[in-house]
Amino acid sequence: MLRLRKPALGFTTRFFSSKYDISVVRNIGIIAHIDAGKTTTTERMLFVSGKTKRMGNVDEGDTITDFLPQERSRGITIQSAAISFNWQNKYKINLIDTPGHADFTFEVIRALKVLDGCVTILDAVAGVESQTEKVWKQAKGIPKICFINKMDRAGAGFSRTVKELMTKLKTRVVLINTPIFASDAQSGELVFEGVLDVVNQKTLIWDTRDPEKVSINNVFEGSNRFEELYKLKESLVETLSEFDEQLVEYFLDNADGDYMKIPPDVINKSIRKCVLSGQVSPILCGASFRNIGVQPLLDAVANYLPSPLEAKRPEFNNDVPITVSAKDGAIINKNKNFCVAQAFKVITDPIRGIMIYVRVYSGCLNSGFSVYNSSTGAKFKIGKLVVMHANVAEEVKQLRCGEIGVLTGSTVSENVRTGDTIIAHNMKKDGLRSLDKVKELGLKINPIDSPPPVFSAAIEPRTLGNKKVMEESIAALIREDPSLHVRIDEETGQTLLSGMGQLHLEIAKDRLLNELNADVEVGKVMVSFKETLSSSTMLKKVETESGYRLSILVEPLADAEDNRSSNEDWHYLSTDNNFLVVEKSPVFTSHNWPLQISYAQFVSAIMSSSIVALQKSGRIGQFPLHSCVVRVKGDWNVPTDATSVSQVLTLSRSLISNTLTELNDCAFAILEPIMNVSVSVKQEDIGDVLQDLTGARKANVLAIDDEHTLNNGEDTDIVFQKLAEEQYLPVDTTLGQANISKGATVNKIIRGLVPLKEMVMYTNKLRSLTQGRGTYHMAYHGMEKVTNDRISSILEGY
User: Tr-type G domain: which residues (predicted)?
Assistant: First the structure.
């Protein structure tokens, strides 16, 4: 027996060496459907690496990464948590545990924005679930490892889940290890006890009484597992050989055509090559709760997922030369002293205040240095830098290329939002002047897109004296979670908070009342409706004696896109698919800029006023405007001695509001969120469910498919179904449940587009129609105009 665990290091060990080696850094995320075991797997990773002295338990509410009171009481992950640990005294793993619930999809989106690789956790009983498909698509282009968890549960199916992986997620797979079962002496049932390591040709059997102990044995020719291992190794090499010619050459020249003679290091090198190119996904299995299979999973993270040197580069607004140095990482514009980082998350710490999570893509961020926010044009000094271990902070002097850390300080909270790009100079505390004004200071990483909110709830203070506390609390919520939106209905005076789902708003309410101590009343959760324009406004112009001049109109997005030209700058207004278009001025150019305020400050001011003005301008139901463009004509002017954008803010907001006020009611239309719905039902229930969808729920049914036929039978589905049939897999008694080609009974999938308003409380209706056997998944599709016969019922609800 070997003990596969290092001594606990505690939360104060940052790294194992004073010399920073970027090649051994792994920035990974854990993604999966809810309840697949993400947090449990994370806890076991921390334990076996020696990061913690005990294993946290989701059911007992004592996990490291789920530290919020709501997370521990509900047993779910609500916000992503970052933690760093070492593995094998060589690798540094920066891990982000993400939520699995669809309402918190923005947490997954912003985590994936800064990660280099992913571990996808699957439930061996449930297989590939709806949210698994969603997060897999969100992680497109990011190398992935798959871990089939809960192999110790009744009904677990390793081979069935692998087949579903191939057909539903459309990926080629290589089996790194497969499950080993033993017969229980008392019950005679098969018990999961370990894995067959295909690459290293060994068996790993965990001690059921002490999960830290594992028995490792070679599989020799003639042993009872050799034939199975040979078939698995053959399948592994054959799959890799389709993508790696070097492995084929080694197989023929050095291994004499014997699969078993290819050493592990050659196989691992080939797997890594194919994973980084996105051609295969390694598959491992285990039971995290019992601590089985976690160590091989960590080895796979180290061996197969990319370092920051190999990871995909971020997308910038401008084309700049990027080279990669083994010592310094990414070097942008041939400037080793140029630092670029992106803010991807904001939290409020009770002691440190506002904390901004950042990923450094080039250079180094140094504590106490001046930095520049190229997204807003603000220059400020950062305070102390820290590395987070869930909710425990460790101070560091610098964050180097490839690292994930946190900015602190009052100036940081005032000047940085989620998605902003931070620019700095490596060596000088105030070295921004030495950076190239256009290529470096003007560089931005493309922002993090926030999905539109689809539910709203009215929030009111219990007394007028509580109003300020309520506003401050809501501001704190939105600063941390930009997928929450707030607007004031000026006609009723109500504050409306909008979010991704009912649970999302329920959590927000809980935080307002219990964490932020806001004495408020929260109303009924309702669907968020919008309005849009069917015609453009008249051009409004203002010119002041002091020299300010603005000409603005508002138009439908479709009209603006049809006439888009190179003579205009487009800026997304953060929500509701609205944009600001600034026509380029013939007077003010990058080579001729006499103004004291920057172009970024000028644009930011008009963006702010546009967001406010469009939020309250709907005529029919006073809903926010959606899919509109605020256009600033190119004859704008700002006095050269102006040092503030306050006048620009005031003038632009007034112009936008005035130009919308003059429109007739017929120029507006109500929009409602439409959901892409997939309902899985038995054949005998399909009639009742279809009738309910098309009748009461106004659904537009697109297709009815067998459960394992995806995308309506496209060629790629046929290809991957054939590959799944040809893939060698171990014996699995549940495999027939995924094999639709042999006449097994399968569910039908009804796919359609349904108004979100009609899907509220659909769970109860579906249960009654299918005796509890039906399931459904829905995702946001887009906004569509409401038909005239439904407008009155919608307005009555508000």
Answer: 23-309
Residues 124 and 147 in one domain: yes
CATH of residue 378: 2.40.30.10
Q: Measured between alpha carbons, how far is residue 524 from residues 308, 385, 455, 479, 798 in Å? A: 46, 41, 10, 23, 11
Note the residue count of the chain.
798
* Boundaries of domain holding 182: 2-304
Is residue 340 one of the residues assigned to a domain?
A: yes
Task: For residue 169, give Cα distances in angstroms to 110, 143, 468.
Answer: 21, 14, 48
Q: Which helix (H) or strand (E) is 301 found in, with range? A: helix 294-304
The predicted pLDDT at position 256 comes to 85
Which residues are known binding-site members?
32-39, 97-101, 149-152
In this prediction, residues 447-472 reach a mean pLDDT of 83
Residue 628, Cβ density class (10 Å: 0-12 exposed, 13-18 middle, ≥19 buried)? buried
Instruction: Mark whether 610 and 750 lie in a shared domain.
Output: no
pTM listed for this prediction: 0.77
Of 632, 662, 692, the domain-final residue: 662
Q: Which residues are annotated as a binding site for GTP?
A: 32-39, 97-101, 149-152
Indicate whether 715 and 594 sit together in one domain.
no
Q: Are 484 and 478 in contact (CB under 8 A)?
A: yes
358 and 223 within one domain: no
Is position 440 within any domain? no
> How does DSSP assign 255-298, residue by residue?
STT-GGGS-HHHHHHHHHHHHHTTS-EEEEE-BGGGTBSHHHHH
Residue 200, both tokens: 């290293």
Question: Is the separation of the CB atoms in 194 and 280 below 8 Å?
Answer: no
* Rounded Cα gap, residues 414 and 356, in angstroms: 11
CA-CA distance, 178 to 188, in Å (whole number)? 21
Beta-carbon contacts of residue 223 (< 8 Å; ≥ 6 apart)? none
Question: What is the distance, to the nearest Å, from the Cα of residue 565 to the centroid of all Cα atoms in its chain?
Answer: 32
**Cβ(568)–Cβ(630) below 8 Å:** no
Tell whether 466 and 336 lie within a shared domain: no
The rounded radius of gyration (Å) of the Cα atoms in the chain is 28
For position 581, which CATH number holds?
A: 3.30.230.60
> What single-letter amino acid sits at 14?
R
Contact by Cβ (8 Å): 293, 287: yes
Q: How far apart are CA 139 and CA 76, in angstroms?
A: 21
Judge whether 684 and 695 are in contact, CB under 8 Å: no
Report how many domains make up the chain. Answer: 5
| Tens-digit pLDDT profile for residues 185-239 | 777 788 899 999 999 999 999 987 776 788 999 999 888 899 999 999 999 999 9
Position with higher pLDDT, 132 vs 283:
283
Write down the mean pLDDT value for the chain: 85
Are 295 and 360 in the same domain? no
The alpha-helical segments, DSSP class H, found in 672-761 are 686-694, 715-726
CA atoms within 13 A on the CB side of 359: 27
Across 131-162, b (16+ Cβ under 10 Å) vs e yields bbbbbbebbeebbbbbbbbbbbeeebbbbbbb
CATH code for position 470: 3.30.70.870
DSSP-derived secondary structure for 40-59? HHHHHHHHHTTS-SS---TT
Nearest Cα residue to 91 out of 399, 296, 303, 293:
303
Residues 30 and 94 in one domain: yes
Question: In whole angstroms, what is the distance from residue 133 CA to residue 680 CA?
Answer: 15
Work out the burial of residue 308: count CB atoms within 10 Å of its CB; fewer than 13 is exposed, 13-18 middle, 19 or more buried. Answer: buried
Residue that is last in its domain, among 609, 641, 662 = 662
Distance (Å, rounded) from C-alpha 437 to C-alpha 430? Answer: 15
Q: Is residue 300 part of a domain?
A: yes
**Residues 686 and 624 occupy one common structural domain:** no
CA distance 439 to 614: 33
